[in-house]
DNA sequence: CAGAATCCACTATGATACTG
DNA sequence: CAGTATCATAGTGGATTCTG
Protein backbone atom coordinates (compact mmCIF):
# COMPACT_ATOMS: atom_id res chain seq x y z
CA UNK A 1 0.00 0.00 0.00
CA UNK A 2 0.98 3.53 -0.66
CA UNK A 3 0.23 4.52 2.83
CA UNK A 4 1.74 1.70 4.80
CA UNK A 5 5.08 3.34 5.34
CA UNK A 6 3.44 5.87 7.58
CA UNK A 7 1.58 3.58 9.94
CA UNK A 8 2.40 2.66 13.51
CA UNK A 9 4.67 5.61 14.33
CA UNK A 10 4.49 8.27 17.07
CA UNK A 11 2.27 11.13 16.01
CA UNK A 12 -0.87 9.31 14.95
CA UNK A 13 -2.91 12.31 13.82
CA UNK A 14 -0.14 13.77 11.67
CA UNK A 15 0.50 10.45 10.08
CA UNK A 16 -3.12 9.88 9.26
CA UNK A 17 -3.11 13.27 7.58
CA UNK A 18 -0.01 12.39 5.57
CA UNK A 19 -1.63 9.09 4.73
CA UNK A 20 -4.77 10.57 3.33
CA UNK A 21 -2.77 13.19 1.47
CA UNK A 22 -0.59 10.52 -0.11
CA UNK A 23 -3.67 8.65 -1.11
CA UNK A 24 -5.23 11.77 -2.55
CA UNK A 25 -2.15 12.55 -4.59
CA UNK A 26 -2.04 9.01 -5.81
CA UNK A 27 -5.66 9.18 -6.91
CA UNK A 28 -5.13 12.51 -8.61
CA UNK A 29 -2.07 11.59 -10.56
CA UNK A 30 -2.35 7.89 -11.31
CA UNK A 31 -4.39 8.36 -14.43
CA UNK A 32 -3.85 8.05 -18.12
CA UNK A 33 -3.96 11.71 -19.09
CA UNK A 34 -1.60 12.90 -16.39
CA UNK A 35 0.92 10.34 -17.44
CA UNK A 36 0.61 11.20 -21.09
CA UNK A 37 1.00 14.90 -20.35
CA UNK A 38 4.09 14.27 -18.26
CA UNK A 39 5.53 12.11 -21.02
CA UNK A 40 4.74 14.71 -23.66
CA UNK A 41 6.36 17.51 -21.73
CA UNK A 42 9.51 15.61 -20.91
CA UNK A 43 12.25 18.18 -20.85
CA UNK A 44 10.55 20.53 -23.25
CA UNK A 45 8.37 23.52 -22.70
CA UNK A 46 5.18 23.34 -24.71
CA UNK A 47 2.27 25.60 -25.42
CA UNK A 48 -1.28 24.51 -24.84
CA UNK A 49 -1.98 23.75 -28.48
CA UNK A 50 1.33 22.01 -29.01
CA UNK A 51 0.55 19.79 -26.07
CA UNK A 52 -2.88 19.12 -27.48
CA UNK A 53 -1.40 18.05 -30.81
CA UNK A 54 1.20 15.95 -29.08
CA UNK A 55 -1.29 13.90 -27.12
CA UNK A 56 -3.48 12.08 -29.54
CA UNK A 57 -7.10 11.87 -28.52
CA UNK A 58 -7.11 14.33 -25.64
CA UNK A 59 -9.92 16.84 -25.67
CA UNK A 60 -9.48 20.53 -25.02
CA UNK A 61 -11.33 20.12 -21.78
CA UNK A 62 -9.41 17.15 -20.44
CA UNK A 63 -6.14 18.83 -21.23
CA UNK A 64 -7.18 21.96 -19.38
CA UNK A 65 -8.44 20.05 -16.38
CA UNK A 66 -5.42 17.84 -16.09
CA UNK A 67 -3.00 20.71 -16.56
CA UNK A 68 -4.74 22.59 -13.76
CA UNK A 69 -4.54 19.58 -11.53
CA UNK A 70 -0.86 19.05 -12.28
CA UNK A 71 -0.21 22.72 -11.70
CA UNK A 72 -2.07 22.61 -8.42
CA UNK A 73 0.06 19.72 -7.27
CA UNK A 74 3.17 21.57 -8.34
CA UNK A 75 4.26 19.15 -11.07
CA UNK A 76 3.81 21.61 -13.87
CA UNK A 77 4.65 25.27 -14.12
CA UNK A 78 2.34 27.45 -16.14
CA UNK A 79 3.80 30.61 -17.60
CA UNK A 80 1.49 33.16 -19.17
CA UNK A 81 2.85 35.70 -21.64
CA UNK A 82 0.59 38.74 -21.58
CA UNK A 83 0.46 39.10 -25.34
CA UNK A 84 -2.36 39.12 -27.86
CA UNK A 85 -3.13 36.43 -28.66
CA UNK A 86 -2.12 34.90 -25.33
CA UNK A 87 0.82 32.53 -25.16
CA UNK A 88 0.83 30.01 -22.33
CA UNK A 89 3.70 27.64 -21.78
CA UNK A 90 3.89 24.55 -19.67
CA UNK A 91 7.02 23.02 -18.18
CA UNK A 92 7.66 20.20 -15.76
CA UNK A 93 8.93 21.31 -12.38
CA UNK A 94 11.51 19.43 -10.38
CA UNK A 95 8.89 17.16 -8.83
CA UNK A 96 7.33 16.73 -12.25
CA UNK A 97 10.67 15.59 -13.57
CA UNK A 98 10.88 13.23 -10.64
CA UNK A 99 7.64 11.58 -11.60
CA UNK A 100 8.68 11.47 -15.21
CA UNK A 101 11.22 8.83 -14.33
CA UNK A 102 8.36 6.67 -13.14
CA UNK A 103 6.24 7.35 -16.19
CA UNK A 104 9.19 6.57 -18.44
CA UNK A 105 9.54 3.33 -16.56
CA UNK A 106 5.99 2.47 -17.35
CA UNK A 107 6.47 3.27 -21.03
CA UNK A 108 9.49 1.01 -21.18
CA UNK A 109 7.57 -1.69 -19.40
CA UNK A 110 4.71 -1.38 -21.87
CA UNK A 111 7.01 -1.83 -24.83
CA UNK A 112 8.99 -4.62 -23.24
CA UNK A 113 5.90 -6.68 -22.49
CA UNK A 114 3.82 -5.65 -25.47
CA UNK A 115 3.73 -9.01 -27.23
CA UNK A 116 3.55 -10.78 -23.90
CA UNK A 117 0.44 -8.85 -23.01
CA UNK A 118 -1.01 -9.29 -26.46
CA UNK A 119 -0.64 -13.04 -26.08
CA UNK A 120 -2.19 -13.01 -22.61
CA UNK A 121 -5.16 -11.14 -23.97
CA UNK A 122 -5.72 -13.58 -26.80
CA UNK A 123 -5.63 -16.42 -24.31
CA UNK A 124 -8.12 -14.66 -22.06
CA UNK A 125 -10.53 -13.52 -24.75
CA UNK A 126 -11.73 -16.94 -25.73
CA UNK B 1 4.43 9.98 -25.92
CA UNK B 2 4.08 6.34 -25.18
CA UNK B 3 3.84 5.53 -28.80
CA UNK B 4 6.60 7.62 -30.26
CA UNK B 5 9.24 4.95 -30.22
CA UNK B 6 7.31 3.06 -32.86
CA UNK B 7 6.83 5.79 -35.42
CA UNK B 8 8.57 6.26 -38.72
CA UNK B 9 9.86 2.72 -39.18
CA UNK B 10 9.41 0.17 -42.00
CA UNK B 11 6.23 -1.78 -41.53
CA UNK B 12 3.71 1.00 -41.06
CA UNK B 13 0.62 -1.12 -40.48
CA UNK B 14 2.24 -3.34 -37.85
CA UNK B 15 3.59 -0.37 -36.04
CA UNK B 16 0.28 1.35 -35.96
CA UNK B 17 -1.19 -1.77 -34.44
CA UNK B 18 1.56 -1.91 -31.84
CA UNK B 19 0.98 1.77 -31.21
CA UNK B 20 -2.70 1.45 -30.53
CA UNK B 21 -2.10 -1.62 -28.41
CA UNK B 22 0.46 0.23 -26.33
CA UNK B 23 -1.98 3.04 -25.90
CA UNK B 24 -4.73 0.65 -24.92
CA UNK B 25 -2.55 -1.04 -22.33
CA UNK B 26 -1.54 2.33 -20.99
CA UNK B 27 -5.16 3.38 -20.64
CA UNK B 28 -6.11 0.11 -18.98
CA UNK B 29 -3.38 0.05 -16.43
CA UNK B 30 -2.56 3.66 -15.63
CA UNK B 31 -5.24 3.99 -13.01
CA UNK B 32 -5.37 4.23 -9.28
CA UNK B 33 -6.88 0.85 -8.46
CA UNK B 34 -4.55 -1.15 -10.69
CA UNK B 35 -1.60 0.47 -9.05
CA UNK B 36 -2.91 -0.13 -5.57
CA UNK B 37 -3.62 -3.77 -6.36
CA UNK B 38 -0.14 -4.27 -7.75
CA UNK B 39 1.34 -2.61 -4.68
CA UNK B 40 -0.78 -4.72 -2.36
CA UNK B 41 0.17 -7.97 -4.02
CA UNK B 42 3.88 -7.24 -4.13
CA UNK B 43 5.55 -10.58 -3.73
CA UNK B 44 2.72 -12.15 -1.81
CA UNK B 45 -0.17 -14.26 -2.91
CA UNK B 46 -3.46 -12.99 -1.56
CA UNK B 47 -7.06 -14.11 -1.57
CA UNK B 48 -9.84 -11.91 -2.81
CA UNK B 49 -10.97 -10.86 0.64
CA UNK B 50 -7.46 -10.32 1.91
CA UNK B 51 -6.83 -8.05 -1.03
CA UNK B 52 -10.06 -6.23 -0.33
CA UNK B 53 -9.02 -5.62 3.27
CA UNK B 54 -5.58 -4.57 2.19
CA UNK B 55 -6.78 -1.86 -0.17
CA UNK B 56 -8.67 0.69 1.81
CA UNK B 57 -11.73 2.02 0.10
CA UNK B 58 -11.96 -0.37 -2.81
CA UNK B 59 -15.38 -1.80 -3.45
CA UNK B 60 -16.09 -5.42 -4.16
CA UNK B 61 -16.98 -4.52 -7.70
CA UNK B 62 -13.93 -2.41 -8.47
CA UNK B 63 -11.67 -5.09 -7.08
CA UNK B 64 -13.29 -7.74 -9.24
CA UNK B 65 -13.19 -5.61 -12.35
CA UNK B 66 -9.62 -4.55 -11.95
CA UNK B 67 -8.45 -8.04 -11.10
CA UNK B 68 -10.13 -9.35 -14.26
CA UNK B 69 -8.46 -6.64 -16.30
CA UNK B 70 -5.06 -7.33 -14.79
CA UNK B 71 -5.56 -11.03 -15.35
CA UNK B 72 -6.57 -10.42 -18.94
CA UNK B 73 -3.41 -8.44 -19.53
CA UNK B 74 -1.38 -11.18 -17.92
CA UNK B 75 -0.13 -9.18 -14.95
CA UNK B 76 -1.93 -11.25 -12.38
CA UNK B 77 -2.43 -14.96 -12.11
CA UNK B 78 -5.70 -16.18 -10.69
CA UNK B 79 -5.72 -19.60 -9.08
CA UNK B 80 -9.01 -21.18 -8.10
CA UNK B 81 -9.10 -23.95 -5.52
CA UNK B 82 -12.17 -26.07 -6.13
CA UNK B 83 -13.22 -26.22 -2.51
CA UNK B 84 -16.34 -25.21 -0.63
CA UNK B 85 -16.33 -22.38 0.08
CA UNK B 86 -14.17 -21.41 -2.89
CA UNK B 87 -10.66 -20.14 -2.37
CA UNK B 88 -9.22 -17.89 -5.04
CA UNK B 89 -5.67 -16.64 -4.91
CA UNK B 90 -4.03 -13.84 -6.83
CA UNK B 91 -0.34 -13.50 -7.58
CA UNK B 92 1.69 -11.13 -9.70
CA UNK B 93 3.18 -12.71 -12.79
CA UNK B 94 6.59 -11.84 -14.15
CA UNK B 95 5.26 -8.89 -16.11
CA UNK B 96 3.25 -7.84 -13.08
CA UNK B 97 6.44 -7.84 -11.06
CA UNK B 98 8.00 -5.78 -13.79
CA UNK B 99 5.37 -3.11 -13.46
CA UNK B 100 5.62 -3.24 -9.70
CA UNK B 101 9.01 -1.57 -9.94
CA UNK B 102 7.30 1.36 -11.63
CA UNK B 103 4.51 1.51 -9.09
CA UNK B 104 7.03 1.36 -6.27
CA UNK B 105 8.78 4.26 -7.93
CA UNK B 106 5.61 6.25 -7.85
CA UNK B 107 5.03 5.46 -4.20
CA UNK B 108 8.53 6.61 -3.35
CA UNK B 109 8.01 9.72 -5.38
CA UNK B 110 4.76 10.47 -3.56
CA UNK B 111 6.42 10.26 -0.19
CA UNK B 112 9.48 12.17 -1.25
CA UNK B 113 7.47 15.11 -2.54
CA UNK B 114 4.61 14.93 -0.08
CA UNK B 115 5.28 18.18 1.73
CA UNK B 116 6.38 19.80 -1.52
CA UNK B 117 3.03 18.97 -3.08
CA UNK B 118 1.16 19.99 0.02
CA UNK B 119 2.81 23.40 -0.15
CA UNK B 120 2.08 23.74 -3.86
CA UNK B 121 -1.56 23.02 -3.20
CA UNK B 122 -1.83 25.61 -0.46
CA UNK B 123 -0.30 28.15 -2.78
CA UNK B 124 -2.71 27.24 -5.55
CA UNK B 125 -5.86 27.06 -3.43
CA UNK B 126 -6.06 30.72 -2.63
C1' DC C 1 -16.00 -17.00 -0.11
C1' DA C 2 -15.92 -15.29 -4.61
C1' DG C 3 -18.33 -13.28 -8.00
C1' DA C 4 -22.18 -12.26 -11.29
C1' DA C 5 -26.01 -9.34 -11.99
C1' DT C 6 -29.00 -5.55 -11.13
C1' DC C 7 -30.28 -0.87 -10.10
C1' DC C 8 -29.17 3.83 -9.63
C1' DA C 9 -26.59 8.13 -8.49
C1' DC C 10 -23.01 10.52 -9.82
C1' DT C 11 -18.99 11.82 -12.58
C1' DA C 12 -16.21 12.10 -16.51
C1' DT C 13 -15.94 13.38 -21.01
C1' DG C 14 -16.94 15.35 -25.60
C1' DA C 15 -19.14 18.87 -28.38
C1' DT C 16 -20.31 23.36 -28.77
C1' DA C 17 -20.44 28.11 -28.05
C1' DC C 18 -18.64 32.27 -25.90
C1' DT C 19 -14.84 35.63 -23.85
C1' DG C 20 -10.44 38.34 -23.21
C1' DC D 1 -4.68 31.31 -28.56
C1' DA D 2 -6.10 29.85 -24.25
C1' DG D 3 -9.61 29.29 -21.35
C1' DT D 4 -14.41 29.13 -19.32
C1' DA D 5 -19.20 27.68 -19.41
C1' DT D 6 -22.95 24.80 -20.65
C1' DC D 7 -25.19 20.79 -21.99
C1' DA D 8 -26.05 15.88 -23.23
C1' DT D 9 -24.63 11.41 -22.51
C1' DA D 10 -21.72 7.46 -21.91
C1' DG D 11 -19.51 5.43 -18.36
C1' DT D 12 -17.97 4.79 -13.35
C1' DG D 13 -18.65 3.06 -9.21
C1' DG D 14 -21.46 1.89 -4.93
C1' DA D 15 -25.10 -0.81 -2.68
C1' DT D 16 -27.59 -4.71 -2.85
C1' DT D 17 -29.10 -9.21 -3.96
C1' DC D 18 -28.46 -13.88 -5.63
C1' DT D 19 -25.73 -18.22 -6.67
C1' DG D 20 -22.45 -22.31 -6.50
Automatic annotation (TrEMBL), chains A, B:
A Pfam entry, by short name: HxlR
Residue ranges constituting the HTH hxlR-type domain according to the UniProt record: 18-118
Q: Is Transcription regulation one of the keywords UniProt gives this record?
A: yes
**Which terms are listed as keywords in the entry?**
DNA-binding, Transcription, Transcription regulation
- Signal sequence range: none
Which superkingdom? Bacteria
Molecular functions (GO terms): DNA binding
InterPro entries referenced in this protein's UniProt entry, alphabetically: HTH_HxlR, WH-like_DNA-bd_sf, WH_DNA-bd_sf
PANTHER family reported in the protein's UniProt record: TRANSCRIPTIONAL REGULATOR, MARR FAMILY (PTHR33204), TRANSCRIPTIONAL REGULATORY PROTEIN (PTHR33204:SF39)
**What is this protein called in UniProt?**
DNA-binding HxlR family transcriptional regulator
Native source species: Streptomyces pseudovenezuelae
Amino acid sequence: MVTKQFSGSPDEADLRRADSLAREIFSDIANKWSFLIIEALGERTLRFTELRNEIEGISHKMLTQNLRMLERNGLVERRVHPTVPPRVEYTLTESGQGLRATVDGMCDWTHRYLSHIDAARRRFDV
